[in-house]
Amino acid sequence: MPEFVTSPMILVLVAIVGYLLGSVPFGIVMARLFGLGDLRQIGSGNIGATNVLRTGSKPAAFLTLIGDAGKGGAAVLIARALFAEDAAQIAGFAAFLGHCFPIYLGFKGGKGVATWLGTMLALAFPLGLAACATWLVTALIFRISSLAALVAAALSPVVALLLGLPQLVLLSIALALLIFFRHRANISRLIAGDEPRIALKK
Description:
Helix content: 55-70%
Largest sheet: none
Number of helices: 10
Number of strands: 0
Radius of gyration: 16 Å
Low-confidence stretches: none
Oligomer: single chain
Mean pLDDT: 94
Structural class: mainly alpha
């Protein structure tokens, strides 16, 4: 963790604002804007970009991805600009929690991968870039989105150490554990060999 220099009251306020920002369900918003129906009744019922893509609307899925990643990144960058690095980490963690457990949707949210990547990119661009690259390489090799997310999350604390970012190790571990928790159904399907693969079109 970074050195705590911001007052506890400010950190609490940062956490609340970060959580509310993270709770904005861009998947739901985009599905309604594009006339795709209630995203929670489509495919897996998840509110993330992957499920939006199942509707067949690539623009809506892309905008959902940008929105979900952007809210994590925005929370970090705003907190860093206004306060300090401790506030930036708190804001990023809170935004991730907001996406996974949004107050606007009865605390039933997404799995947090895009928000996690956006948060990592804003906290330390090399670490975020490594996480994105790990996801992409794993996805290309195995063609399983959830496996790519799990591998990238699991390796992020190690990569943080290798990049000389020990202040991000604890946060990386916490976020990785939450990603594994949110993917517990996917893990069961991976073990059973039933997890859907990414369809690659020629």
